[in-house]
Amino acid sequence: MTERVKYAAGTAAAAVILAVLFFTYTLWNSSGILTMIPKPEGSRPYVLTETKEGSYPKALSALLTDGVYALLKGGTPRNALLSAASAAKEAALLVEDGGEGMTEVYASFRFAPSDTSALKKGSLPEALKTVFKGASVRAGSEKGVFTIEAEGLSSPVYYTVKGKNVLMAAELSALRRMEDASKKSSANLGGKKWRQEKSWPAHIEVSDGGVITAGAEHKFPITIEAAWHSLEPKNPSDPAGEIRWALVDLGKPVEAYLSSSLKAKKWDTADCIIPEPLLLSMGINLPPLGGDPRDWPFPLSSLGEIAENLDMKEAQIREILSGQTVFSLGGQNRILWFSLPGFLVEFSGRTELMNELVDSFWKNLFFGAEPKPLPGFTFGGTTNVPFSVIGAGRDGIAVLGLTTPQSINAKNRLGKFLKEDEAVVGWMLADLPRIGGALSEMTKMSSFLEEEGMEDSGPYGDYQGYGDNEQLAEPLQPDLSLSPFDQGITDSFGSVLKQLGRVLIVWEKPLSGRINWYKTAAK
Predict the structure, then answer these.
(1) Within this chain, do residues 39 and 79 fall inside the same structural domain, yes or no?
(2) Transmembrane segments in this chain: where (predicted)?
(3) Dihedral (CA of 339, 345, 350, 354) sign
């Protein structure tokens, strides 16, 4: 080999090494937005998001910032950080439970180069002037750290610029934690790999920190990872976006248990009844249930108690609840002079068992009332006692609930939302604006009933001359508590829901599924 060839080979090898180093450095920096975010503590609840321009989850912001008990209320620097995320070209946010009732926000943003340059010089760019109105920026006590003070903010926001990234926090200590974490790969999320739809523009991870399983023998955090993107609906009824979600890092024993006990099955979309107008409908294919029905999780425990009141055997209760079951809020009902959302449960199973369930429903809960036949059903029916009741069935289904016959419109079918050949574990369809409106109305009615009850009490309290130990029965006006919240709370929460539209959640496999959201209300 000549010297010229050796020199050329050596030069080529050096060029390759330099290219590898350059691209490694470039790729490291291009994904460095998460390098600035500290690793959350697994024992505390947290929400982590990484989004590109135009994909920041406004619904998440609404849940965190709006309402009486919102964690990050308007006028606080942490609230402003969420607003800043929607103005950035790229954003990474960690919202973490800080303990003692505190919630901390760690934010890493990327803006246009000119905006980043302005921030580095202590000047607020146009992209952030709508977030920080009437703001002034001044240099902090530490080198490279600036504070933003704005109208309506209770305290300043701190930031510093690290290369392409703008780090922001509501506390100087949080900003320091981000800077320290960025220097140690073991302390930051720079190595995080999203598992759901890597090419999509937005990702989120939500962990309960073990809160849900706190009372269990084996405590572990429940973590959900999801990715989403917007769609271009051709028709008003088409989804405006899709989310792919999965339960992650549950541990092999839990994942194996869920995979073996929950099975995806095809749903008879023609026989699943969706009340009209719809608030919420949820269907699930349950595995065989063990243990005492009173120990089952809600709402199964409530159904177990109701089934016991129907004077049915425990084996029958298990068979009824082990299979495809649909819970629905929707339709209409009238209690006295009030119009309320209806409630409906649909069971599936052997025709003989469904028939026995309907018979027991009327005999034990409504004292043998004779229901009128209901079109489309072969046994049971409907009546008013004084509210509308349905207990009917056909073939292998039984429908029980408090709603009007007109509410179970034959046109409103599950087939409008699920494909006929689609096998899923479960699904949920929710019209969130309608739920928000219904919550507010139910609270108003509850308050009215309480006021009426106080006005109806005589000048001597409840004593009406029937004897000290004798109580006057009021079968037509039971003690109704339609909402556990006061008007302010439900109005506030209802306003949040009204911003969110309609969603369809599909539990496709034991550990994963999808969510579609719609701009229009349910039809």
Answers:
(1) yes
(2) 7-28
(3) negative
Phi, psi of 372 (to 5 degrees): -80, 145
Q: How far apart are CA 339 and CA 324, in angstroms?
A: 30
Residue 219 lies in a domain: yes
pTM: 0.78
Asked whether 95 and 47 are in contact (CB, 8 A), the reply is yes
How large a percentage of the chain has pLDDT more than 70? 76
CA pair distance 205, 46, nearest whole angstrom: 8
**Three-class SS state of 169:** strand
171 and 254 inside one domain:
no
User: What does the DSSP 8-state code read for residue 283?
Assistant: E
Q: Which residues pair with 161 in a beta bridge?
A: 166
Q: Which of 145, 167, 192 is the last residue of a domain?
A: 192
Per the CB < 8 A criterion, the answer to whether 92 and 36 are in contact is: yes
The verdict on 228 and 182 lying in the same domain is no
What is the extent of the structural domain holding 247? 205-260
pLDDT at 297: 67
Same domain? 53 vs 126? yes
Do 110 and 220 sit in the same domain of this protein?
no
Distance CA 302, CA 229 (A): 38
Dump the DSSP string for 16-34: HHHHHHHHHHHHHHHTTTT
Neighbours of 388 (CB within 10 A): 21
Identify the burial level of 194 via C-beta atoms within 10 angstroms of its C-beta, where 0-12 means exposed, 13-18 middle and 19 or more buried: middle
Element (H, E) at 335: strand 324-335
Q: Rounded CA gap, 48 and 93, in Å?
A: 6
- Extract the runs of DSSP E, i.e. beta strands, from 165-294: 165-169, 202-207, 223-230, 241-248, 265-266, 278-285
Whether residue 163 sits in one domain with residue 62: yes
In this structure, is residue 15 part of a structural domain? no
61 in any annotated domain = yes
Q: pLDDT digits over 461-500, tens only?
A: 343 333 344 333 332 223 333 344 445 555 556 666 777 7
Q: Give the three-class secondary structure for 494.
A: helix
CA-nearest of 329, 298, 513, 350 to 425 is: 513
Q: Are 76 and 120 found together in one domain?
A: yes
- When divided into structural domains, the chain yields a total of 2
CA 437 to chain centre: 18
CA distances from 136 to 93, 129, 142, 146 (A): 24, 10, 18, 10
Which of 177, 258, 246, 175 lies closest to 205 in space, CA to CA?
246
Whole-number pLDDT of residue 229: 94
SS3 of 68-108: CCCCCCCCCHHHHHHHHHHHCCEEEEEEEEEECCEEEEEEE
Reduced to 3 states (helix: H, G, I; strand: E, B; else coil), residue 522 is: coil
DSSP 8-class letter at 56? -
Give the separation between CA 267 and CA 415, rounded to whole angstroms.
9
